[in-house]
Amino acid sequence: MRKQARRSPWATLALTSCLALSAHAASFDCARVATKVEKLVCSNTELSKLDKKLSDIYHEALNKYPELEFIKQDQIMWVKGRDKCITAPSPIACIKSSYIGRISDLDPNSATSKFPVRIAELGSNWQYKRDADKIFVIREAMASGKLKTPPPTYNTEPFCRTFPEDLIAGRNIEVIEADMQVMVRNDPRLGVRRYADLGEQGVRVLPRDDPKVGRWYRCDGIGSNESTASHPQNIFTWFDLQGLLPYRIYQIELDGNTENGLEDVLLYREQGNGYSNDYSWVDLKGCKINQIIQINSPAHWLHPENKDALSLLIRYQGIVMVLEYKDLSKITDSEQLEKIYLFSMVDKTKVCFWGDPFGSIWANYEKKAKRH
User: How confident is the model at residue 364 (pLDDT cuts 50, 70, 90)?
Assistant: First the structure.
């Protein structure tokens, strides 16, 4: 019996990083594979396609994040875990699930991605080190005199009447900076997660009130009966289910009750539309979302050089608000290109705006008003 040469983990890594679409289109010789799992991958079209996809995304990750040594180490551990599928009741189903999970881990756009986002690849709203620096762009737009004031039936809140003048004068407006910006999942500053995959030891689950559990992890994995939210869509569990990296965390007084401590606001990019941002007021004790302010942006605004989709939290007249600025010059030929919006973080029905977000609707409104 011929003794088989022992393959090192690095050789296994290289091999599994290059597995073929099929035996007919292999990047290695399927006739020389050594393990039963590799033979299954070679003989199964779906597994071969998944392997090719993993190979592509793995090499892309190595090129994009050369400083992250854990990518290679994780790949070695993943190979070992995948190979254990041969003893599963359904090896092919197990291998498929293993590939799908690994692809998700390596995809920077996946909700379970292990990689930090690259700020340089995001839109202009993320380019500023301080939110206070954004306000100069918004102030210049307001001071230009080009922003149309809406009809009297709009902007009825008292703060709407005084805000333009105060913004231009640079007074009475406090910019609220984030307490933390999270660039990678499992940021150690967030503390210990309730759920942890311990490999062969299984999954560890800690009680919500365990002092080791980070406060942002205490809702991780809860059931609907453990949340005080009135609607399932308002249940908060964890960042991954809310949106995409990066995350900005704010602790501010929102509800007017100083005895219950500061409230938590989370800024993130929307799932399925990473160009839009949401501000969520999160109740971590009740594991629910009290309020969401959506800042919608078209896809082409992703480019860092586009200074056309900015937002920040401010405090004005004792109210925490989201200040938003948009320049629509890239998607419309309207005379009114710049828009400024102001939303109350506590009650988003209290809103002001300048510019003409409704175009001809306002024009028709004014024509009717003049006739009467």
Answer: very low
Residue 287 CB neighbours (<10 A): 23
Distance in angstroms (rounded) separating the CA atoms of residues 314 and 163: 12
Instruction: Please give the order of strands across the beta sheet that includes 243-252.
Output: 180-182, 243-252, 263-270, 273-283, 288-295
Amino acid present at 38: E
Residue 247, classed as helix, strand or coil, is strand
Q: What is the pTM of this model?
A: 0.68
pLDDT tens digits along 53-103: 888 888 888 887 776 677 787 888 888 888 899 999 999 999 998 889 888
33: buried, middle or exposed (CB in 10 Å: 19+, 13-18, 0-12)? Answer: buried
pLDDT digits (tens, 9 = 90+) for 285-338: 999 999 999 887 655 555 545 555 789 999 999 999 999 988 766 555 545 567
Q: What share of the chain is helix, strand, coil (3-state, %, to 5)?
A: 40, 20, 40
What residues does each domain of the chain span? 9-106, 124-187+222-371
How many helices (H) and strands (E) in the chain? 9, 12
DSSP secondary structure letters along 116-133: PP-GGGS-GGGT-SSGGG
Q: Kindly list the distances between the CA atom of residue 176 and the CA atoms of 190, 314, 316, 323, 361, in Å, as whole numbers in the listed order.
A: 21, 5, 11, 11, 34
d(CA 46, CA 349): 50
CA–CA separation, 64 and 77 (whole Å): 21
How far apart CA 366 and CA 362 sit, in angstroms, is 6
The beta-strand segments (E) located in 189-329 are 195-197, 203-205, 243-252, 263-270, 273-283, 288-295, 309-316, 319-327
Reported as a pLDDT band with limits 50, 70 and 90, residue 199 is low
Instruction: Judge contact between 22 and 42, C-beta under 8 A.
Output: yes
How many alpha carbons fall within 13 Å on the CB side of residue 115? 25
DSSP 252: E
* pLDDT computed for residue 112 by the predictor: 65
Distance (Å, whole) CA 334 – CA 330:
10
Going by their DSSP bridges, the two strands 180-182 and 351-354 should be labelled as unpaired
